[in-house]
Structures are given as C-alpha cells and as structure tokens.
Amino acid sequence: MITADIYKVPCLKGRTLSNHTVTVTVPGSKSITNRALLLAMLADGESVLTGALFSDDSRHFLSCLHALGFQTTASETESRITVKGLAGRLPCAESALYVGSAGTAARFLTACLGVSQGVFHMDASSQMKKRPMAPLLDALKELGCEISFSEKEGYFPFTLTGHGFHKNSICIDIDSSSQFLSALLIASCLSEKDMEIQVKGSHGMSYIAMTGKMMEQFGVRFSKTSEDVFMIPAGQHYHALSYAIEPDVSAAAYFYALAAILGISVTVKGVFPDSLQGDVQFLYILEQMGCSIKETPEGLCLSGPKKKKLHGITVDMSACSDQAITLAAIAPYADAPTTITGIGHIRHQESDRISAIAENLQAMGVSCTEQENGLTIYPAQPRAALIHTYDDHRLAMGFSLTGLLTEGIVIENPLCCKKTFENYFEVLESLLIQI
Questions:
Q1: Which of 27, 92, 143, 382 is 20 to 30 A from 76 in CA distance terms?
Q2: Residues 57-67: b if buried by 16+ CB within 10 A, e if exposed
Q3: Of the segments 65-69, 223-227, 419-423, which one has the largest average pLDDT value?
Q4: How far, in Å, CA of 302 to CA of 170, rounded?
Q5: Alpha-carbon distances, residue 212 vs 36, 39, 45 (angstroms)
Q6: How far apart, in whole angstroms, are the C-alpha atoms of residue 288 and residue 19?
Q7: Local structure of 246: helix, strand or coil
Q8: Measured in whole angstroms, how far is the alpha carbon of residue 317 from the centre of its chain?
Q9: Taking Cα atoms as reference points, which of 95, 52, 59, 39 lies closest to residue 219?
C-alpha cells in the first residue's frame, strides 16, 4: 500500500516463484539525461533528446536552462526534450537559478557558469546545501571566478561572478564527488587555450568515462597525458545532435536484485553490456554471488540462483557505488557475510548512506559493522521495521527489496523516489503481479 507517508512492502516469502520470467521497462538514465542537457545547452543549434528521464532532478535542470534564457521544449509523454544551444554563449548576463537536490545540475551548471561571463545567483534545497561544493568552487576561484556565499562558506547558496578562464591549468580533488571533474571537463572547451586538469582522487572513474564518451559524441575530445592529468585541446565545439538516452541502469539494478533474491529471471528492456553507465557492473557482482546473466534481443536477463542462497562476497563498489544500498539490502539473505568497500564518498550524498544502511539493517535485527569506507553485513532473517529514508530515494528503493522476503517492512516517505524514478513502487507492484 502506497500513501504519501509510507509504503508497506508486499511480502512474497513462502510463495513458489521458480521458473518465472518477467520483463521490465525503466525510465531513461538520470546521469545521461542531465549530461545531455548541459552538452545540448553548449552545442551549436537544436538538439533533440529522446528517451529522456523526467524526474525532480531533470526538471530542476530544465528550469535552470529556462532561467538562463535558453529555448527548450519538453514532452513527458514522449520522453522527449529539445534544447536550442548557442555554441557556448549564454542568453543573459545575470540570472537566479534553483537546482533543488540535483547534484548534477548543482555541479555541472556551477562549473559552466563559473567560467562564463556574468553574474549568477545559485540556490538549492536544504539537502543539497549539506553536500560538498568547496573543491569545485575553489577551482573556479583559481580560474578567475568571484564567489560570495550567502550562508556557509563552501556550500549553497552563493553568487558566481564569472570572467571566463584566467588560467589554463587547474587541480581538482574528487574524493567527495567525481561530478567536480565531469563538470570541469564539459566546461573546459569554453577556454580559448588548451586546458589541463590535474586530479586528486580516483573514485567514480566510470562516471568520468561516461562523461568522456558523451563529450566525444557531441564533438569534443580530451586525452590523458598521465594517470592523473587530463588535457582538453582548444578550438573544439559541441555540435547539436539527435541523441537517444539509454534506460537508467541504476533503476534497472533494483529489479535485477529482486531476481537475485527471489530466484526468478528478470529482463530490463534496453540494458546491454556496452552501456555507458558504470552501474552495469552491479550485474556482474550479482553473478559472483551465484546469479547468471544472458543477453537477449530485448536486454540483459539476470536469473537468480535456483534452490540456493546467494553467496556472500567481498567487493569494491567504487565503480557502481549507487548500488551499495541495493547490495546491502539483499545481503542478509546471502549464505555468508558480505563486505562492501570503496564507498566512503557516499557519506556525503543525499544522506550519510553508510550510516543510514547500518541503522536500517540494525532496526531489522541484521548485524552489520560499519567502517569509514564501507561495511560488512551478516546473514540473518530480518524482522519487521520502519525504514528511515532521510529523503534519500536510493534508501527507499533499495530497502523495498528486503521487504519482499520479510513481513512488515514499511518504507518511510516513499515519494522521495520522485528525485529519479517517481513511479518506482507502481512498477514494482506491476512486476509482482506477474509472478
């Protein structure tokens, strides 16, 4: 049952579910949609984005484009957006933008506007005001941007006064977010000189790879001159495209994890091994735990282990950290402890996700140990509990999976899923009806 306040997860424990095969359709990728919006904004004409995600995050990004004066059209029924870019120019020299809780909008637009000419007043939700911005803002200051803070230094809200690029090399620390580097890479082609970016930290490089592939698709290339230095040659420009956005693999992962614990087969339409999205690696983590993967014309099909439990594993999830909650939510049903490492940065996302995972598991009677960079979950039969989501969509979606095999799991504030997948629980229930 879904209300504005709670979602009571249907429990399937005791039902015979083997040999069931279902197919699921998920929305377009959040990461790709928001990158495509920025690239289209910087391109030289009208781009048409198909398969686009419409969620709180993408709507905030679109509203920011409107606030900047860009011409856009959007059809939610057709999952289609058009953006008329001005080859890197901005329609106005001063604007006020509200990015909500959208980390991509917050980081990507800040970088782009910080190296443009103009005055931009940037505000965000209370949740986004707690998330790190200082490494990016410090880099923009070095490049010549003036920044004044309205509340706490290094955080939203602030005003950017951009003067273009005053230097052509910068160092950025991405330990708290790889979005800082993606943002600077995308904006770097606005420089009149070759741009060099040195990087401290290494997490989230699958997202940097996605950024690089999409930049190349829109017409701009960069290279690595060493392990931690990126070079973007001057004189390149983004070109308008008709661009098809992949289904969201982060969204698909919940249904693949469902297959893993229920022992059924799930195919997600349009998800293939060559996806731009790093979260496709989550399927291979499930494969290590005893699942099997098959490529079909419709998409990848994952089958849970038949008549056996999932295997507990130790895994570095730095390449697909959005799925750390998903794995933690199903780990109690494994046959041995599961240790997740490489995810220290998720303490600084929509919530302190490591602490929130531990708190919710312990509320269900599941033993776990929390480390700075990860946690270990021990096998157990969970008990009924209220899941505290902290307005974090991934906590709501991830722990709904635990409830499929435990009576009495209730998700607090299920509507927080509208950040990326607003009808998640409706899609989940439509799948459950099929099995």
A1: 92
A2: bbbbbbbbbeb
A3: 65-69
A4: 43
A5: 12, 12, 21
A6: 21
A7: coil
A8: 14
A9: 39
What is the token pair recorded at 97?
A: 């933008």
Distance (Å, rounded) from C-alpha 279 to C-alpha 166? 37
Give me the DSSP letters along 191-207: SSS-EEEEEE--TTHHH
Q: What SS3 state is found at 245?
A: coil
CB 345 within 8 A of CB 103: no
- Catalytic residue (choose from 57, 322, 391, 392): 322
C-alpha to C-alpha distance for 333 and 380, rounded to whole angstroms: 7
Alpha carbons within 13 A on the beta-carbon side of 396: 28
Give pLDDT, residue 307.
Answer: 77
Residue 302's Cβ-count burial label (10 Å; 0-12, 13-18, 19+) is buried
d(CA 360, CA 90): 46
Q: CB-based burial of residue 225 (10 Å sphere; 0-12 exposed, 13-18 middle, 19+ buried)?
A: exposed
For residue 384, give the nearest of 365, 369, 368 by alpha carbon. 365
Three-state SS for 8?
Answer: strand
Distance (Å, whole) CA 271 – CA 375? 29
- The domains of the chain, with CATH numbers, are 6-27+247-434 (3.65.10.10), 30-244 (3.65.10.10)
Reduced to 3 states (helix: H, G, I; strand: E, B; else coil), residue 73 is strand
Packing angle, helices 134-143 and 179-187, rounded to 10: 30
| List of E strands, 104-157 | 117-123, 146-149
C-alpha atoms less than 13 angstroms from C-alpha of 163 in its C-beta half-sphere: 9
SS3 state of residue 259:
helix
Task: Tell me whether residue 322 is one of the annotated catalytic residues.
Answer: yes
